[in-house]
Predict the structure.
Amino acid sequence: MLLHIPAVFSREEVTRIREALEAAAWIDGKVTAGHQSAKAKNNLQLAEDSPLAKEISQAMLERLWNNPLFMSAALPNKVFPPLFNCYRSGDDFGYHIDNAVRQVKNSVERVRTDLSSTLFFSDPEEYDGGELTIQDTFGVQKVKLPAGDLVLYPASSLHKVAAVTRGERYASFFWTQSLVREDSQRSLLFEMDNAIQQLSRDLPEHPSLTQLTGTYHNLLRRWADV
Ligand code: NI
């Protein structure tokens, strides 16, 4: 399942973040790539321990933890801290599948990468190319969202960032370990939660709501690992 979550940051917030990103010191993106994907990766990245990366990451995760759409779709357990990248004209990242388990820098913590998220900090008109291209069960999806918006997709999918041919593409991405490992089970729960939310708006007094909500939680109890 591919999900678009709009306006994680407002226009004003995006403008401020962009100014900070444009003034930041960038390093070669290969430092966080696995052996195999380093060959395919041509971009710039903020150092993982850069204070700016930490500051924006914290704001981003706070925002997402209060976002009902993200919470319902991702059912997050823990995340690998967001990374920030910049693709200039000529940069790209060829097809790859992300490593399954990531070790958090300077920590014993490991994160299983069930879901990937990309948050765009450049608007589509600012650059050509640079589409996040994902092969999912329904074919190839090309994603290029307004600045401040996020796309959530299964980290098990083959994906690439197409070459940027004009301008600069700023974005952040991070991995989430979900309470529910299987994409198909997570999708079922997401659809069920949406239906329950809709029903509780339209027919708040309906007696079946209690049973349906209970069934949602009993499925989550069966599938969640914490
Ligand atoms: Ni990737």
